[in-house]
Amino acid sequence: MASSSNPGATGTDAPSISITVERNPPQSRLLELGIKSWPKWGCPPGRFPLKFDAEEMCYLVKGKVTAYIKGSSESVEFGAGDLVIFPKGLSCTWDVSAPVDKYYKFASSSS
After folding, report:
1. pTM confidence score
2. How much is the pLDDT for 16?
3. Cβ atoms within 10 A of the Cβ of 34, count?
4. For the chain, what percentages of helix, strand and coil (3-state, to nearest 5) are there?
């Protein structure tokens, strides 16, 4: 009796770690999150392997990225004006086609 009504609900190895992209969120959402108080980071075009040891939320001020998720054929594109969430444990390679300037924030642990 296999059931797929709630995939991913079990505590098994997260089968689908994915990147969430919120395209052009409204200014009210950015103010609510306090984006302008977050640290800034930037990088030039190139390829960069990244591993997220904590969940990261970032807002791209400029740039264009295609992220290739390790162990998957999935890729995600995001760029200027996008709010992006990278889940804890994600490994990916950023293929940066236009220089990136972003605000970022790591999820605070509750310990």
Report:
1. 0.82
2. 66
3. 10
4. 10, 50, 40
